[in-house]
Amino acid sequence: MEFDGYLGTDERDWEATADGTLRVAIVGLGWWSRERVLPALANLENCTATVGVSGSSAKRERAVADWPSVEHGLSYDEFAAGEAVDAYDAVYVCTPNALHLPHVETAAEFGKAVLCEKPMEASVERAERLVAACEDVPLMVGYRMQTDRAARSVRQLVREGVVGDPVTVHGHMSQPIAEMFDDPSHWRLDPDLAGPGASVTDLGVYPINTSRFVLDADPEAVTAATWSGGGEWFERVPDERAGFQLAFPDGVTALCSVSQNAYKTAEFRVVGTAGEIRMRPGFFGAQENELFLSTPAGETSVTYEPADQMRELFCFFADRVLGEKAIPADGEHGLVDMRVVEAVYDAAEDGTRHQF
Questions:
Q1: 3-state helix, strand and coil shares in percent for the chain, rounded to the nearest 5
Q2: Does 210 map to a domain?
Q3: Residues 268-310: pLDDT tens digits?
Q4: Which of 32, 15, 2 is nearest to 202 (CA)?
Q5: What own/partner pairs with CB < 8 Å and gap ≥ 24 does 132-135 have?
Q6: pLDDT digits (tens, 9 = 90+) for 79-106
Q7: Where in the numbering of this chain does the Gfo/Idh/MocA-like oxidoreductase N-terminal domain appear (predicted)?
Q8: Cβ–Cβ under 8 Å, residues 266 and 281
Q9: Which of 97, 127, 142 is the last residue of a domain?
């Protein structure tokens, strides 16, 4: 049994056809922007970073010094005031969640397209304001799994009925945050900056959105449970660990688990009436990914070499904006995830099933 006819490990099932190069201001120069975003944009033909925005003068100076395309380093106040506004066409917002809104509002005010990291904001209400601010400019939410080739292969296999009708989705993602950062006051563990929790807001969005993407459907209800052992790392959040179930149309369920204090691993699995697909390690980029397909005809697997997910995401975003094409992961799409995340916390707190 082969994957003949399905997306290969070095192919896209979408094509960048728009002419030109999109110039982007990178708002927020934390480790993700410095280590993943700026390198991804270094040799991308249709998208380039021209402006770096940060509250740290050292980070601004480093971005300008290290990346030839970055001609301007701005403070947040300088960005809001419109300095170097003619040097960029779009804005990528990668600050703590609760700071997305003001930067997106600034970008929209200047008529710039927006690529906003997920989750869009720290609450549904602020996310709704963010979407409203972008009424007249393109807005895309940074769901990198939607441009990941392995995830798109899973979607294609499900759409074409290779595993029959979907029955159950399993999604897991965990990492030891205390080994990644040396400060328990890190913003992902601060409700004022991250939102209502830590594991669901930061990691849960991956199985939530990937389930929606693969099934091409939105959940109708959620049940959930969270647990936190406290201590200096998790005393401010309810979800050191979390498990939740999403009910989709036609009786399909998604069983999801996440933790910021566990072994780094991930997996996404779709079980259908005629087979199953497993993607492992799934949600983590910059590492080898493997798909396993099992049906009555046999079992097979395909390995995807490490791909630069941010490079694919920016290439797709630039093509959508330059070509004035529809954006699938737009603001309304992102609002669904915001409402699901909020419902997970509500369901865990009151122990009831929450309907959408």
A1: 40, 25, 35
A2: yes
A3: 999 999 999 999 988 998 788 899 999 999 999 999 887 789 9
A4: 32
A5: 133/101, 133/104, 133/105, 133/108, 134/104, 134/108, 134/331, 135/108
A6: 999 999 999 999 999 999 999 999 999 9
A7: 22-140
A8: yes
A9: 142
Number of domains in the chain: 2
CATH of the domain at 107: 3.40.50.720
Provide the residue type at 26 as one letter.
I
Q: Report yes or no: 63 and 41 within 8 Å, Cβ to Cβ.
A: no
Cα–Cα distance, 275 to 297 (Å, whole number)? 9
CATH of the domain at 248: 3.30.360.10
Q: Within this chain, do residues 277 and 297 fall inside the same structural domain, yes or no?
A: yes
- Final residue before a domain boundary, out of 142, 167, 198: 142
Structure tokens at 212: 């929606």
Tokens of 332: 């309304």
Which residues of the chain are modeled with pLDDT < 70? 1-10
CA dihedral 48, 53, 59, 63 (to 10 degrees): 20
pLDDT of residue 43: 85
Please report the pLDDT score of residue 79 as a whole number: 98
